[in-house]
Write a structure and sequence with these properties.
Blueprint: E1 10-15, H1 26-35, E2 38-42, H2 47-59, E3 64-68, H3 96-103, E4 108-117, H4 124-144, E5 148-153, H5 156-164, E6 175-178, H6 184-192, E7 196-199, H7 210-215, E8 221-223, H8 245-256, H9 260-275
Parallel strand pairs: 1-2, 2-3, 3-4, 4-5, 5-6, 6-7, 7-8
Bound molecules: nickel (II) ion.
């Protein structure tokens, strides 16, 4: 067995440090992550936040990588304005050509977040636009040979059906299901297809995910914060940040019955495997 590094290495594979929530203290936030041994993937949710993620990755080349994608929530006509993402209330229009141009940047290690979200908007037209946008991003990931960073909420049957209908354009590994919230059966189907799964702050205070986490092999599990959203215990109610991923890994280690050192190292290697470009 290889010897483990003295200081544990942590990976926050789904976080948004490029968002407006950190405009006043971004350097301090990244400094705290560095001290905690946390590297991260800054995830884009539309063109503007994908562009900002790449800029941040350029500024912190050893600690930050980027993704480019268009979040399913942005296909909704009654889209709510999330002030973390942009200062203006206008919706961005999905433009796969512009996204592809951005995604060719070598800092980009995945396509997403993309996927389906029927939780807030159950309109059939929105669902159709989400599906079309998702398929376009699956193709983009295939063209650029990058894994998918998938967001899926209340839509797993449709998501699995789309993925199963496109075996010729799924990469190996196909990608990551960000904060998996489906059933055991859905997890098994996605495992069979080669997907990895991330879990975040919610697992530190809700017990609904314990069973699925115990079922998924540790070599398919990754850790995330989804910062600035949903902080883990003991930071609940505060703005989340990448350094807090340590609390998520602590809980994963607890559920798996192994040490936090071993868990963090396994997750770090899983991230190297999925994202390819990341080498320690
Ligand atoms: Ni996110």
């Amino acid at each position: 067995m290889e010897s483990m590094p003295v200081v544990p290495r942590f990976m926050d594979v789904h976080t948004h440090p490029q968002m407006l929530a950190y405009n006043s203290d971004r350097e301090a936030v990244l400094g705290r992550a560095k001290i905690a041994g946390v590297k991260m993937i800054a995830v884009g949710t539309q063109f503007s936040t994908s562009h900002a993620a790449i800029e941040l990755a350029g500024k912190y080349p050893k600690d930050v990588w980027a993704t480019v994608g268009f979040h399913p929530a942005h296909f909704s006509v009654n889209w709510y304005h999330d002030k973390n993402e942009q200062s203006s209330p206008e919706r961005e229009i999905f433009d796969i050509v512009a996204l592809e141009d951005l995604a060719k940047n070598p800092k980009v290690v995945a396509i997403g977040e993309c996927g389906l979200d029927y939780f807030r908007d159950k309109d059939e037209g929105t669902k159709d636009r989400q599906k079309e946008g998702f398929v376009a991003q699956i193709s983009l990931a295939h063209r650029l040979k990058k894994p998918l960073m998938i967001h899926c909420r209340a839509a797993f049957p449709d998501l699995i059906q789309i993925l199963k209908s496109k075996p010729e354009i799924l990469n190996s590994p196909p990608g990551i299901i960000h904060f998996f919230s489906g059933t055991i059966d859905e997890a098994k189907k996605l495992l069979d297809m080669g997907f990895y799964f991330t879990f975040g702050g919610v697992i530190t205070f809700a017990r609904d995910y314990d069973y699925v986490i115990k079922m998924i092999p540790i070599d398919r599990i990754l850790s995330e914060t989804d910062a600035p959203y949903v902080s883990p215990v003991p930071y609940r109610g505060k703005r989340n940040e990448p350094a807090y991923v340590v609390e998520v890994v602590r809980k994963l280690a607890d559920l798996k019955g192994v040490s936090i050192e071993e868990t963090s190292e396994t997750i770090f290697r899983n991230a190297q495997n999925v994202f390819g470009l990341i080498k320690s």
